[in-house]
Fold this sequence. Notes:
By secondary structure, this protein is mainly alpha-helical. Helices cover 40% and strands 0% of the residues. It contains 5 helices and no strands. Helix 1 (8-14) runs antiparallel to helix 2 (21-29) and helix 2 packs parallel to helix 4.
Amino acid sequence: VARFDDFPVHKMCYNHSSTTAQELQHCIEDQDEMESLVDEFGMTPFHVLFSTAEPSEELLEVLLNKFPIYVLGWKDVNGKLAMDYLVINWTQNNKIL
Length: 97
């Protein structure tokens, strides 16, 4: 998705099924964490990961370990928290989160 070209962490969260936790961790370490934390829609990597049908628990752990917890309280341009997307996209497969 071209919208994530300038946001590699977001792109990896979007492509969660083909991204390993180690790849995500290295990607975060290779960039300025806070500078590219929010995309043009006000979404953080948490928003993107929780927008997927089956968010990866391993990628979530990496995000929680690498970014300040208060980022979960940030709203996107639609006024939604990352957790709002998790609730909207909830399935039986998300029980482990």
